[in-house]
Amino acid sequence: MKKRLDHTESLSTLGQLAASIAHEIRNPMTSLKGFTQLLFTTANDEGKRYLSVINDEINRMEEILTEFLEVSKPTTHIFTKFEIKNLIQEVVNFMAPQALMQNINATINFEVDHTRKILGDRNLLKQVFINSIKNAIEAMSHGGNIYINISDMRDKPYVCISIEDQGYGIEEKVLERIFDPFFTTKAYGTGLGLSHINKVIGEHGGNIEVSSTVGKGTTFKFYLPLHNGNKPILTI
Ligand code: ADP
Ligand code: MG
């Protein structure tokens, strides 16, 4: 199954409002955390057990808020010209320890001229590929391979970065929602990774395709416009 995406603004005005609420919630949470820790020092064993559950839950709420604020904050894009190959290599090196711990091997295959450049915000795109590989790792609880392929599109000035995993795959009903903010199938997921990825790729004039087979694995293909010396950025 396959899904092609339009560029949609994943975080709307409502999202901005949610961001300011998230920000406001942070202060009372800090005070909750402080008092929980204070109570811990005087509580008996039973009380300590309950308080540590409260503490864990507060930490979890903080994590969600931090990730949400990270995604929704207005970012100034710093566009530079850079080689996509180096960026992907950096991401793979960065993720290697986490992958190794789960018996996962990530290999990169370059089908394109190594000096091919794109114009974009390097940090934002780096986050895109980190999040995508993180999702691949999280889908492969039994280990396996992640194949990353960088190729050209024959008829268009785009580079295609595909990330293929051997994870549990995505059911059709789930596939329709994976880019929605806060949609997650994971017990401890935030559901913000793919909505951010979609936003960033859209802002770069790119596109995403997903194909998946349940029980076999998933492939995300990211298409990004190649930089050509004259125009700053190519649009579809
Ligand atoms: P999170 O990882 O916090 O759940 P994401 O936005 O990154 O949020 O992903 C949303 C959902 O998309 C995941 O919960 C999962 O169901 C699905 N998903 C994303 N990537 C993969 C993948 N490589 N394999 C299987 N499912 C995936
Ligand atoms: Mg994720």
Summarize this structure as a short list of keywords or feature phrases:
six-stranded mixed β-sheet, two-stranded antiparallel sheet, binds adenosine-5'-diphosphate, alpha+beta, single chain, 236 residues, binds magnesium ion
Description:
With 236 residues, this protein is an alpha+beta fold. The protein has helices at 13-42, 45-72, 84-101, 122-139, 172-175, 193-203, and strands spanning 2-4, 79-83, 104-110, 117-121, 144-153, 156-164, 207-213, 217-225. Helix 1 packs antiparallel against helix 2 (45-72), helix 3 (84-101) packs parallel to helix 4 and helix 4 runs antiparallel to helix 6. Magnesium ion binds next to helix 4. Residues 131, 134-135, 193 line the site of magnesium ion. It catalyses: ATP + protein L-histidine = ADP + protein N-phospho-L-histidine. Residues 20-228 form the Histidine kinase domain.
